[in-house]
Inverse folding.
């Protein structure tokens, strides 16, 4: 991702609104995200490959490039594969968006959408169908985010929050607080952008934190809802989480709570699911399995089954750390990864991960803010953009 100097020709062409947005969020500038080779969650999770006590018992034919199984309550990681590998997250990044913005607005608050609120939605986005001139409640907007993965709903809420640049900066700050140091945020909606990366470990942190909030839990577990169409008319929207709804020939998973699925043609499939059985709640994240069909859901279900079968006896191989703001102990990245990587280190980390986005946000936090500020300009020029998760051929 290219970092633009305030004096460069590109920066000179930025809109006054974007420049003001950058100035507003300057105090929130963060350093570049840490290497995947960190001690976050424990030394074993920094290793590549499968980390589990009895690998022979794991589900067969797992094709995901990264996955993780954890106990929601204790935070124990029961098994993992490349837990910190940095990959494009697609719309699972919307969990971090919700962790960041959800508490800011009362669900009953109303907002009349303008053309400007939707002007920077990337072409090819998954949409819930928001229209300018219609008034929506905040609750309806969040249902659009969780059920239909609507980038239009994300952008409306982001503009309510002070704009795209501010929201991106706050999401990066929230990731830092959650100690999700593999995550680099470029856009609030998870749409494909060079350098937008996360990991199975970080996505699981986002889900665990989000599920502590009753509204978050309620939205991600909702199967269908009526959505405003203008006037007194409504249309029904359905959750695109196939384990929750049983769509596309896939049976519903018993005890499933949610949480969030994602797909883009560049990122592939991603999914974080949570389910409760026998008083125990497990979290599973699966990233980039073999493309096509129901693979991401089938592998998630298989890992959930394994987790429930072994949760009482499996020895933890790591832990989900607590947020710093909630008393969590700050974890320092290991010496093997360096405290904070510069451009060359981040390039190497991304290349090793095999992510479809080769350069991994090498310019750090300031570049992330500049990317957010220039975001509205770039997306207007973008031609032939890739289809996002719920709007692509998969769903």
């Amino acid at each position: 991702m290219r970092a633009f100097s305030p004096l460069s020709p590109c920066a000179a062409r930025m809109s006054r609104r974007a420049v003001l947005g950058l100035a507003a969020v300057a105090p929130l500038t963060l350093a570049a995200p840490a290497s995947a080779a960190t001690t976050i969650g424990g030394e074993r999770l920094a290793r590549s490959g499968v980390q589990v006590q009895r690998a022979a018992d794991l589900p067969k034919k797992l094709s995901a490039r990264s996955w993780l199984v954890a106990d929601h309550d204790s935070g124990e990681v029961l098994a993992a594969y490349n837990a910190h590998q940095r990959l494009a997250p697609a719309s699972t990044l919307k969990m971090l968006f919700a962790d960041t913005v959800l508490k800011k607005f009362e669900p009953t608050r109303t907002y009349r959408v303008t053309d400007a609120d939707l002007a920077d939605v990337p072409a090819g986005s998954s949409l819930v169908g928001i229209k300018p001139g219609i008034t929506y409640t905040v609750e309806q907007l969040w249902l659009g985010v969780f059920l239909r993965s609507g980038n239009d709903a994300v952008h409306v809420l982001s503009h309510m929050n002070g704009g795209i640049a501010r929201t991106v900066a706050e999401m990066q700050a929230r990731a830092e607080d959650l100690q999700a140091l593999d995550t680099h945020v470029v856009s609030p909606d998870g749409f494909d952008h060079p350098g937008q990366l996360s990991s199975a470990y970080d996505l699981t942190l986002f889900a665990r934190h989000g599920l502590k909030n009753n509204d978050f839990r309620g939205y991600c577990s909702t199967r269908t809802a009526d959505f405003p169409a203008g006037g007194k008319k409504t249309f029904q929207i359905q959750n695109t989480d196939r384990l929750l709804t049983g769509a596309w020939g896939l049976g519903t998973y018993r005890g499933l709570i949610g949480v969030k699925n994602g797909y883009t043609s560049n990122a592939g499939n991603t999914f974080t699911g949570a389910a409760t059985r026998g008083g125990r709640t497990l979290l599973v994240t699966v990233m980039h399995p073999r493309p096509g069909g129901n693979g991401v859901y089938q592998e998630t279900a298989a890992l959930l089954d394994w987790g429930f079968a072994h949760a009482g006896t499996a020895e933890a191989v790591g832990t989900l750390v607590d947020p710093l703001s909630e008393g969590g102990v700050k974890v320092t990245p290991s010496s093997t990864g360096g405290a904070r990587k510069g451009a060359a280190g981040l390039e190497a980390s991304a290349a090793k991960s095999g992510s479809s986005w080769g350069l991994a946000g090498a310019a750090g936090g300031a570049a992330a803010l500049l990317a957010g500020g220039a975001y509205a300009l770039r997306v207007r020029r973008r031609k032939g953009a890739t289809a996002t998760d719920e709007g692509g051929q998969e769903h």
About this structure: The chain has a mean pLDDT of 81.
